[in-house]
Amino acid sequence: MYRIPINISHIFLNHSIEPLNFLQCSTKVMAEVQDGYYDSSTDNLHVEPIYESFLCPLNKQVMRDPVTIESGATFEREAILKLFKECASSGRRLICPVTRKELSSTELNPSIALRNTIDEWMHRNEAAKLDVARKSLTSESSEGDILQALEYVVEICQRSRSSRHVVRKVGLISFIADLLKNSSTKVRQKALESLRYVAKDDNDNKNDIAAGDNIRTIVKFLNHGRTQEKEQAVSLLYELSEHKPLSEKIGSVPGAILILVGLSSSKVENLLIVDRAEKTLDNLESCEKNVRQMAENGRLQPLLRLLLEGSSDTQLSMAAHLGELVLSNDVKVLVAQEAGSTLVNIMKSGNREAREAALKALNQISSYDTSAKILIEAGILPPLITDLFTVGSDQLPMRLKEVSATILANVVASGASFETIPLDCNRQTLVSEEIVHNLLHLISNTGPAIECKLLQVLVGLTTSRTTVQSIVDAIKSSGATVSLIQFVEAPQREVRMASIKLLNNISPFMGQELADAFRGNFSQLSSLVRVIADNNGISEEQAAAAGLIADLPPRDSVLTRRLLQDGAFSTIITKVIMVRQGDIRGGRFVNPFLEGLVRVVSRITFILDDDPDIIAVAREYNLTALFTDLLQMNGLDTVQIVSATALENLSRQSKCLARVVPAPNPGLCFSIFPCLGQTSVATGGCRVHVGICSARESFCLLEGKAVEKLIACLDHNNEKVVEAALAALSTLLEDDVDIDQGVVVLCEAEGVNPILEVLCENRTEALRQRAVWAVERILRINEIAYEISGNQNVCTALVEAFRHGDYKTRQYAEKALKHVDKLPNFSGIFSMMGAQ
């Protein structure tokens, strides 16, 4: 630093006040402005020197509010008042600090002339310094000069609003704004700070700062600047946002609101940045455009506030915008909680335009189960039903009815207890017969868009066990089965899929009615087969189509033959094999799809009796091998149950289909000398079916290697799997086969003990009856009966079955107990008595 020599003669011009001597001036000039001094860092600026009478004798600072006391001495008002207060509190006498004379009065007289002189002096110095500062605020100046000039701007702006006005008047704002693009981080940071002080409480300055692309530049610091730059930038932006006319301009900068929203919710930025970003956003809410942007970027509260508290036009605008947003599930819940009731009320009582806006917003919110349930509590169902069913001059246009139908479909998909939610004063519910009839009528008399959504409503209602029966009863009473099946052939995929899903849901309750309807128009059955045959992965529609056909009565030979005629079994079996081998992957729909396909294929096994054509089909596709392989699909209980049942049906045909083994020619010697002959044993024959068997031709379980796999299923946790497997194994013990050999086969496959364990477990009555029947057959072998007679668990289980089983079970148990000598066998005694 260096000092400019002071012209002493200039000090006395136009002043009646004695100046300080040169030495005094050099030590007091340029102490901090905000404290009444000039900073020594500005000694190199041309300024007027300070005069001694400008300084308060007490605090040695330039006086802002000079007052004269009784002794004639002048002080800063605040300083002398402080002295008076200290004297009063300590009990000291009042003494003038300058004259040392005792004071009798504390009266203060403003020194207006001196104050004006000081103000004029300060303004002249400020103007001179600002002029020099402006010359330093260029890219050619050194970093040190620029920072020094900016520091002075900050200092002078802190003095008063009029000082900030001077900064604008001398044109410094544009110079400082240009420095925001300076290569020096320190300069950029100081420029941001300087602009913040320049902008404080001065709207004209704020307008000048916001000129051009300055706001865009400031916003860039929020995203790319260092921490100190971010702090200064967000603080400056907050200061600018205090001027409402600038709110829209700030919000119009691309990304500004998004960045601010991110900063306000940041977990890593410092608290100052987070706080300033939050307060800036609060200021920007004064502009509706900004509120919409905030909502788009996840800050919904301002929009919801306007929706709840704004004027009718504002509510309409906010509701309309809400309907256009893509909301996360959490936000949907928030909106439903805070604004659901308001939107429902607008939908009920608003004008056409307001209702449209509310419907679109509710459509968004209702698409998540949790928020949909909140809307149900807000009373959305009654006005929705009213909108859908109203006809005449008051009815909604079809495009809005479509929105209402979509909302209803969304709400129903939430899984609420709709059978308990009243829709009107008559306590009708969504599953009441009249309501369902009206829905079915609408489905048949509207366009594809509404048809699709209303079909989805019925899909949702039939998915629940508590409401499906009510819907089934209403469909039956309305005679709508045929019309619903027609949608299977709809050209619109969404309509077709909704129809198939609905029919799949009701098929367990209406299998016969649906079969009758399909027999009336086989083309609809063919359409389902085409859906299944689609090769684009596995869809929900395909799974539903397979399930629907599978639920049709399995012994309906007319439908089975039609499926055969359409080539359905070839397609379906190919699909089963591909899924089994992993060649088709279908995500969450692969299991229900496979279950449906296997059930459809099993239809063939229910109509084998005396039908060569169907038997030929079973042979062609080698169903015994297929279902034997499917038994190993652990985790898919339905597939295992259906496969075991199909094997049971196939095995029952084995006795009839086994080829009789021709007796060997005894030869001449045997005919002359019978004593030389031996009993011939057939070679290559099945010992159980007493003929030549194969898995493909006669569906033999032994030849198909199915016995061991069925026995493995006896250990399954699902009693339905166990029952189906035991039923299939029981075909080896029936009257029309060699029972003894059947028991031997089970012994060799280590299947007797698992059957005995099933008996002892006594899981269900049906399973116990089947187990008792099988055990009775096994116990006909004396060696086994003798061994089992010592098994207390088996005997106890048979006794329990004899005591507590139903009529048939008791009959079977009685015979079994006789085999192990637990009951007397009177039949032998009676036969002897009869012979006598």
Précis, in short:
The protein is an all-alpha fold. It contains 47 helices and three strands. 64% of the residues lie in helices and 1% in strands.
Quaternary structure of the protein: single chain
Q: Strands of the largest sheet, in order across it?
A: 2-1-3
Can you give the helix content as a percent range? Answer: 55-70%
Quote the distance from N terminus to C terminus: 149 Å
Stretches where pLDDT is under 50 for at least 5 consecutive residues are 1-46, 672-683, 827-836
Helices and strands, with pairings:
Elements: H1 8-12, H2 22-28, E1 66-68, E2 74-76, H3 77-90, E3 109-110, H4 112-136, H5 143-157, H6 161-169, H7 172-178, H8 185-199, H9 203-209, H10 214-224, H11 227-241, H12 247-252, H13 256-264, H14 271-284, H15 288-296, H16 301-309, H17 312-324, H18 329-349, H19 352-365, H20 369-377, H21 381-389, H22 398-412, H23 433-444, H24 448-463, H25 468-478, H26 481-486, H27 493-520, H28 522-533, H29 540-551, H30 557-565, H31 568-580, H32 590-602, H33 612-620, H34 623-630, H35 637-651, H36 654-657, H37 667-672, H38 695-698, H39 707-713, H40 719-730, H41 739-748, H42 752-761, H43 765-778, H44 782-788, H45 792-804, H46 807-819, H47 826-835
What would you say this structure looks like, in words?
- It comes from Zizania palustris.
- One of its GO terms (biological process) is protein ubiquitination.
- GO terms for molecular function: ubiquitin-protein transferase activity.
- This protein is 64% helix and 1% strand.
- The chain has 47 helices and 3 strands.
- Strand 1 (66-68) and strand 2 form a beta hairpin.
- The chain is elongated and about 150 Å long.
- The N and C termini lie far apart (149 Å).
